[in-house]
Design a protein that fits this description.
Strand content: under 5%
Radius of gyration: 16 Å
Number of helices: 6
Strand order of the largest sheet: 1-2
Shape: globular
Helix content: 40-55%
Length: about 140
């Protein structure tokens, strides 16, 4: 893919690659790479690191913690995350809960979420990590 990117985009990809490989704990990335179950604490750790660096929800509005990135930069962000075996932010929180509150929440509710870190991690148990971003389809016979 590097041959399709301009110099600025290649530099951005390198920055993301370096970040994921140095800031996200190696043992957590190993769990993802080998398909091990992630604990709630694993997910919280990863999410907090992404939040601290502004990389948890780049597609959100900047005032809610997003980045003013191009579509190519958002693609690079996700691609490098997957290549580094970093747990992705939980889709329900990032794609549904946050945008609904930002769009339809009262001013009071939005104010309580002023820095709007992505919503808390589910407490329903572990999360099965997969290096493949698409879950396998299973046949129910």
């Amino acid at each position: 893919m590097d041959t399709l990117l301009n110099a600025e985009e290649r530099e951005f990809a390198q920055k993301m690659r370096q970040f994921y490989r140095t800031e996200i704990p190696e043992e957590l990335r190993f769990k993802v790479a080998t398909g091990q179950e992630l604990t709630k604490e694993d997910m919280v750790t990863s999410q907090r690191i992404l939040n601290q660096h502004g990389y948890a929800v780049p597609n959100w509005p900047v005032e809610w913690g997003g980045q003013d990135w191009t579509p190519v930069q958002r693609h690079i962000w996700l691609e490098e995350m997957q290549l580094a075996c970093v747990p992705q932010p939980l889709p329900f929180n990032v794609s549904m809960v946050g945008p609904v509150i930002a769009t339809f929440g009262s001013q009071e509710r939005r104010s309580r979420s002023a820095s709007f870190p992505p919503p808390p991690i589910s407490t329903s148990g572990g999360h099965r990590a997969s290096p493949n971003p698409m879950p396998a389809l299973t046949s129910h016979r």
